[in-house]
Amino acid sequence: MRKIRKGDDVIVITGRDKGKRGTVLRIVDADHVVVEGANRVKKHQRPIPMKGITGGIVDKEMPLPVSNVALFNPGTKKADRVGIRSLEDGRRVRYFKSNGEVIDV
Q: pTM of the entire structure?
């Protein structure tokens, strides 16, 4: 079970974009995620007339290591660590380490 999933609200905790908050757009691989509005770079894109793509300089989000983001806890309004526990009915759920609140029910 992954501690950070697509659609989660996260905060960047280290690096150039430290403190930025955004939504996880996609999981690239086991160690990288793409966060909305974080780690934006300018890419020089060549035009491809056959596909109708215009050239120019475009902004795009690049992947961040999973270790550089933390889940946003709406209760404390801060970044928080995540743990995994099993419920009585056998389901495994994520919870915030600071207050023990279950994230996905």
A: 0.83
